[in-house]
């Protein structure tokens, strides 16, 4: 839950930190979300060290006046350092700041310059990332210096407000003191010495409020070091104190760092790579990306203010629309126990709120971006772990009940949870001209496509549970994408690209959205972000991109687009004319779609070009927001030479960037190994090389496809060997099951 870090005053800074040294540091806050859009998320309860003030009353406590630059290294970068479980920076005031954390508490270490004879620390109660606090409370215990407080804050991406609380204790590092030498609360830039409490019951937005404390200098060193332990809670200040005391009882900074580092090392080491012949940059990119896939959702267990439960509680689903494609299938490969806890938490939310969580932050429902994308997440879990669900304390019946709530029951506000179910069931698509008081008439085409995939996911769970009628029902609804396919629409300027996903009226007549809409080729420079005025039918991408999104039945899509050759030509055009958008999730599966047309070498080539062009380990090494680990998990799969099909038992296959990769799954206690024979390295530009899969064996036996692996390979702990070639004209193989499955060709219909 706690993600302690540096906040800067750079604009559009949703996650707090900015590596550009021209921006000021403004505080070290305890809660963050990673790589999201929307407004700034969290950034609550900033601490700030003051090396020098002429007097207590003259100290700059306001964020605007206290801010300062960081020191800058000779290469022009800020003097910051970070690794899993640790962050450090050197401020221009001479204060060194180090941070670490446990699950619900942070530990700060402030080392003041020798000139600082009255080191002080500001506790900022109100300045979250949006300056949204109301009803703030701050208290100072004059005996111990403990600061407690809290406030109400605005949601980052939704309509609600949440309560958050903190508890801050201080200790000398290498020396003891009984209490601060000075204390007081502050309002704005005015500290009031010896004041101990502010309780402001105020319905509007306030100026800044917090506490200021002065500490005795160390008698043992020319540099005074102060430890600040910060507990956080969404329940109460008392619980924030309990969290800190139970998780970091001894203020031991080095031990807390070591514990965090050991935890991260164990988790990351479940996927091992052979680095022989691989650039260090690729290895660092791989593990940095894998690390970021484990930041969200966040474990808020014990911190749910809305109801009491013995089930786990996870938050920071920001949003499922971003993460369902790649993050959870990656979790299946190496972290199933945590995946199970997340699923249990999602089911528990449905049991109390009626529908699965979609976008959620700081215990609040936030705006849905697409369909009910919790459905493929739960489908992903049960399809892969149904034989172990009971051992993981996941009720398959409760899981299915939660899925049916999304599929069959319309919520009062389907902008925040669930689906526009009534209309979906009535028309088998979402019409452009049906207005419903329960939500906003936008994203009709993209929601139709995502509802279709959600129902496909439900059909796969129904199959496991032997619900034959439901299998037929939801597989039929999985084919509803056909109802927004207009075979007559062509790409302006290129009549050979024929047939598009398009908006449609309730009477069956077609509406029209230019296929270039919301792409770089759009003559109107339109956007398709979350906006009630957007009536084009698509969210965050173009009809050209969404017309490729039928992951449950790509074989049918190829037929609709005129066969393999036309399909390949369309894919090539999507890349060559920059319709493919590496910064946004709807494009993620497109590079691997050549597999379905029996040209996996082209998929390998495209995916490697994307890594070469868009990913590196520099500050600008991500193509846009990380979106709560969505872009990170996307990169991990590409570097592994795989792409997942959520809620199925298949992974599309290319070649890894490493001569050998191993996956350890602690649930099965098995280790799966993928060996790339003839590995000669990775071309810098992603073009060419001995990287194309010619043949595959599993445990020494010839495998039936060069294009995908089945989940059983990872359950058993098999050894997979890939024979690589420099010939891009490889195929999936000769057998009837060589091509990846699709519904219309009999895939996904048999037993699991």
Topology, pairings included?
Elements: E1 5-8, E2 25-29, E3 46-50, H1 63-66, E4 80-83, E5 86-90, E6 96-101, E7 105-111, E8 120-124, E9 134-140, E10 147-154, E11 161-172, E12 182-187, E13 190-193, E14 197-199, E15 209-214, E16 225-233, H2 237-247, H3 253-268, E17 271-273, H4 280-292, E18 298-299, E19 314-315, H5 320-323, H6 327-334, H7 336-353, E20 360-361, E21 364-365, H8 374-385, H9 396-408, H10 421-427, H11 444-464, H12 468-478, E22 485-491, E23 494-501, H13 543-546, H14 554-560, H15 564-576, H16 600-614, H17 630-640, E24 642-644, E25 650-653, E26 660-665, E27 670-677, E28 692-698, E29 701-702, E30 708-710, H18 712-716, E31 719-725
Parallel strand pairs: 27-31
Antiparallel strand pairs: 1-2, 3-8, 4-5, 5-6, 6-7, 7-16, 8-15, 9-10, 9-14, 10-11, 11-16, 12-13, 12-15, 17-26, 18-19, 20-21, 22-23, 24-25, 25-30, 26-27, 28-29, 28-31
Helix pairs in contact: 4-17, 7-8, 7-9, 8-9, 8-11, 9-11, 11-12
Catalogue the unreliable spans: none
Order of strands across the biggest sheet? 4-5-6-7-16-11-10-9-14
Distance, first to last CA: 36 Å
Tell me the number of strands: 31
Radius of gyration: 27 Å
Number of helices: 18
The major beta sheet can be summarized as: 9 strands, antiparallel
What is the structural class?
Answer: alpha+beta
Helix content: 25-40%
Q: Average pLDDT across residues?
A: 96
Strand content: 15-25%
Which overall shape is indicated by the principal axes computed on the Cα atoms? globular
Protein name: Glycoside hydrolase family 92 protein
Domain Glycosyl hydrolase family 92 N-terminal: 1-233
Organism: Suillus plorans
Keywords: Hydrolase
């Amino acid at each position: 839950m706690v993600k302690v870090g540096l906040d800067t005053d750079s604009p559009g800074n949703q996650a707090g930190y900015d590596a550009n040294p021209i921006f000021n540091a403004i505080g070290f806050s305890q809660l963050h979300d990673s790589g999201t859009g929307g407004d700034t998320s969290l950034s609550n309860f900033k601490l700030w060290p003051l090396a020098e003030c002429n007097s207590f009353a003259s100290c700059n406590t306001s964020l605007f006046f206290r801010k300062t630059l960081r020191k800058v290294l000779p290469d022009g970068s800020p003097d910051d350092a970070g690794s899993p479980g640790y962050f450090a920076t050197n401020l221009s005031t001479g204060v060194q700041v180090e941070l670490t954390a446990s699950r619900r508490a942070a530990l700060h270490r402030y080392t003041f310059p020798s000139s600082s004879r009255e080191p002080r620390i500001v506790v900022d109660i109100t300045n979250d990332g949006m300056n949204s606090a109301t009803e703030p409370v701050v208290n100072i215990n004059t005996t111990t210096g403990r600061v407690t407080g809290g406030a109400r804050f605005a949601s980052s991406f939704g309509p609600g407000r949440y309560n958050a609380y903190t508890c801050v204790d201080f200790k000398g590092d290498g020396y003891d003191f009984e209490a601060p030498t000075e204390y007081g609360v502050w309002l704005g830039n005015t500290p009031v010495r010896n004041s101990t409490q502010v309780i402001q019951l105020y319905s509007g937005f306030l100026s800044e409020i917090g506490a200021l404390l002065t500490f005795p200098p160390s008698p043992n060193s020319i540099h005074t070091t102060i430890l600040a332990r910060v507990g956080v809670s969404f329940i109460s200040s008392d619980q924030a104190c309990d969290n800190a005391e139970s998780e970091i009882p001894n203020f031991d900074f080095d031990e807390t760092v070591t514990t965090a580092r050991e935890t991260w090392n164990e988790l990351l080491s479940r996927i091992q790579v052979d680095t022989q012949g691989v650039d260090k940059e690729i290895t660092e990119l791989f593990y940095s990306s894998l690390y970021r896939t484990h930041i969200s959702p966040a474990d808020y267990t014990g911190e749910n203010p809305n109801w009491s439960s013995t089930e786990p509680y996870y938050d920071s689903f920001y949003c499922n629309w971003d993460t369902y494609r790649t993050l959870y299938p990656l979790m299946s490969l190496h972290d199933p126990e945590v995946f199970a806890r997340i699923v249990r938490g999602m089911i528990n939310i449905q049991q109390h709120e009626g529908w699965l969580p979609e976008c959620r932050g700081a215990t609040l429902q936030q705006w849905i971006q697409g369909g009910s994308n919790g459905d493929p997440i739960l489908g992903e879990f049960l399809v892969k772990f149904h034989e172990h669900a009971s051992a993981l304390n996941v009720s398959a019946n409760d899981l299915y009940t939660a899925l049916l709530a999304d599929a069959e029951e319309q919520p009062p506000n389907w902008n925040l949870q669930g689906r526009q179910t009534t209309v979906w069931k009535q028309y088998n698509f979402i019409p452009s001209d049906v207005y419903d008081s329960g939500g906003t008439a936008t994203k009709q085409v993209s929601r139709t496509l995502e509802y279709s995939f959600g129902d496909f996911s439900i059909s796969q769970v129904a199959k496991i549970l032997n619900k034959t009628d439901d299998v037929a029902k939801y597989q039929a609804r999985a084919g509803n994408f056909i109802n927004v396919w207009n075979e007559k629409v062509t790409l302006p300027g290129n009549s050979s690209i024929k047939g598009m996903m398009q908006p449609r009226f309730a009477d069956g007549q077609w509406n029209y959205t230019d296929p270039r809409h919301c792409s770089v080729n759009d003559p109107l420079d339109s956007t398709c972000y979350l906006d009630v005025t957007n009536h084009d039918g698509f969210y965050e991408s173009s009809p050209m991109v969404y017309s490729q999104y039928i992951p449950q039945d790509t074989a049918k899509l190829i037929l609709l687009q005129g066969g393999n050759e036309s399909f390949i030509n369309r894919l090539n055009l999507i890349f060559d004319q920059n319709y493919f958008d590496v910064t946004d999730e709807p494009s993620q599966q497109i590079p691997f779609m050549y597999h379905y047309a029996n040209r996996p070498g082209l998929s390998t080539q495209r995916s490697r070009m994307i890594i070469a062009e868009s990913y590196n380990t520099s500050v600008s090494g991500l193509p846009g927001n990380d979106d709560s680990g969505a872009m990170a998990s996307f990169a991990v799969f590409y570097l592994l030479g795989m792409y997942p099909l959520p809620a199925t038992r298949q992974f599309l296959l290319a070649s890894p960037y490493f001569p050998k990769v191993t996956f350890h799954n602690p649930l099965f206690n098995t280790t799966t190994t993928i060996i790339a024979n003839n590995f000669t390295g990775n071309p810098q530009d992603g073009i060419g090389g001995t990287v194309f899969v010619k043949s595959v064996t599993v445990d020494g036996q010839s495998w039936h496809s060069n294009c995908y692996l089945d989940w059983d390979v990872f359950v058993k702990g098999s050894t997979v060997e890939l024979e690589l070639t420099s010939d891009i004209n490889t195929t999936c193989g000769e057998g009837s099951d060589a091509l990846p499955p699709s519904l219309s060709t009999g895939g996904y219909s048999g037993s699991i």
